[in-house]
Design brief:
about 500 residues; mainly beta; Membrane-bound Lytic Murein Transglycosylase D, Chain A; 21 strands
Length: about 500
Amino acid sequence: MIKPQTSSLAYTRRVNALKSQTVARARLSRSDSISEVLAVCPQVSLLSCEVSSGRVNYSGKIIFTLLCCDDEGKLCRIQKGAEFSHYCDDENLAPAQSAQCALSCERVAVRRDGSAVSLSAVVRADIEVFAPAERTVVTSCEGAYLKTAPLAFLSHMTFSGECEVEDDFEADGVEDILVPSASVMVTYAECTAGGVEAGGEIILSLLAMRKGYPAGLERVIPFKCAIPCDEAVAGPLPQVCAEVRDMNVNATVDDEHGKCRITFTCTAALFGYFSQTVEQAVATDAFSCTHSLICTGECEPGEVICERKLCTERVSSPAATKAALDFTCRFLAVVLPAAEYEYSPESGSAEGSVNAVLLYEQGGEIKSAEISIPFSVRLPAPGACRADLSVCGVSVKQPTEGRIEGEAIIKICAVYSRSGEVSYLSAIAEGEPLPPEDAAITVVVPAAGDGLWDAAKKCGCPPEEVAQFNPDAKYPFAGGERVMVYRKK
């Protein structure tokens, strides 16, 4: 009689990775004083994310900051905010699941609509879905022989939190701050007992007025924070996403000394998950000398973050732009740097372009042009599961008339993971009775790489008997050996 004993383990698994796009819109109803929009800076952040039957619903807010020229040719700033909501469908989604959503702005468009200005942005959502699950494993079985092994099972634990980042610094000759822009990059993260510690850099890019002309200012602000998580234990490396949710920049100008005191505050939101390992001895194979067995097996893939690598590259190449730039243009500032890129784990290269807005003076008027600097950066090693990239130090020059060259500093944080899978038995049922073995001697020829268990399963007798009758056998077998088992009549 075959009587298996099983054990059930509750855990959380990562069930899906979804992507979605939506368009966030805002409208400036009265914009008669705007003669030209030179640049638009969108700042997007998440408000909520919930899972329902067959759908993930998420919402966010976006703040458009416009750099404009008024009727008198002076630079001015206009801000307009809007909220948006969207969804992503999948038939496997259920209310018991949870999701984490990272938002990013891909494209911005500005359109004149009579006296109004319409703003739109394509917002991309990257969504990770997690679900509670139960794992059933066979631990023992009466009437059968089991091959057991200690296996490392994974459970994904999620976390989220916020931290306040502050900084203040002086800038000589600055008269006003027109457009602030900030992005956050996580450069290290680790689990501790009861929490997750993470840190990195906030890249602050400011468009300021200096001596009556626009100028770009950049500052790299380090930060670190501790996020509470009751399930966290020391050891695992987490996967972390981050975004700037609220930002405030104040400038206090001292005209007498020609200095400006800039105070920066923001709320950085960090969220992600880590893989917690639980080791348990379970059955991976089984056989019986009296009955055939109906074994149900399970295979669980898993991925564990094993390393983070940082690299900094200076890239330079000819820059593309749609504007007709020549020696009559006086370059003033390069602002609002960002990067769009594709990362290939096979080659370990990130290829894309650094995009920014060039402000220049021509014929006494201040104008703008979008520029694009292509790049290809190879990471220290291929195989990273994710590569986060930030840009700073963008500059352009015109060595010959009509030919624009750009340069930028690219920082990359590559996250490397180790993938694997565990296979085990979740159920054993009794099959048909086996015919009695009449032979006094059973001889089998094991294959190369077979062990004691494989030989015993082929002989249909306990592993200890195979070892007893073949004391000189060496495991694993090289191939060509003979294994003999004697039976008493």
